[in-house]
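A further point concerns the way the authors explain their paired sequence and structure data. Each protein is reduced to its one-letter sequence and a matching series of backbone shape codes. An entry of this sort, consisting of the sequence and the corresponding backbone structure tokens, reads as follows:
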Amino acid sequence: MLLHKIKATQAPIANRRPLPTAVPDLSRVFALTNSDMEETLAFLKVRPVHTVVMTSFINDNGIESDLNRGTFYAYRNKRGALEGVALIGHTTLVEARSAESLQALAFTARKSSKPIHIVMSEADDAERFWSYYSGGAREPRLTCTELLFELSFPFLVQDCEWELRKATEAELEQAAEAQAAIALLESGVDPMERDPEGFKKRVLRRIEQGRIFVVVENGKVIFKADIIAETDDVAYLEGVYVAPEYRGQGIGSRCLAKLGLELLGRVERVCLLSNEEFTGAHRSYYRAGFKSTGKCTTLFA
């Protein structure tokens, strides 16, 4: 379903708006621990769609876990209340509800022990985070605007003649190859070349969690979609894939609608992000009943 190469943009991010020159009060930033779980989850629950990945990581792994591939940090305002939470690491996710918290968390990211590969946040928060983080000294390798798609009741349910089921370990290689093809289109990096063992290990864990759904025909995976994160409110999909020779036959939209219907039996909304240039995929999402509800910026370091 992802059919087009995305283009790197080199807009002068640091110059889009004036940035404070003073160093923020980093004493208000602290590394979260498992003892902060209840407070952190309550903070994230205020905006469940935008924070589903961080919430799911915490529910799945705890706050302190190598499986998160980073460290959770928080910012407290003068009243002692949480005003920002970020997972800083390989995939850096930011939920900052003030300019001060965004700046302070970005400065904290400068000292991250784990290399930052991706920065994600809504609207232009990721760009402002990057400007603070880099000090305007360098641009991200790639900047993508992504559309947020959501599915909820009511929507028109389609017939789907294909058997959609959870992937098994027997489909690990095909699932990993499909996911790697999508990652290459989105980021320009093939994880099967960069870290094949680690990448397949992460795909296998998702299979073991029952979060990869496939349609298999004559031993070939022709459709795949992953639940990257799930909470009581939201399921977040990624890696929606249709084998090239099966595209244009309605498989993607009907299988995605079938998966969405199943997931809406336990959550209120199903969401996914898609690069704004992938218009062919967007048509399939619309046919599956999804609606475009917002935008997000993703930066690749």
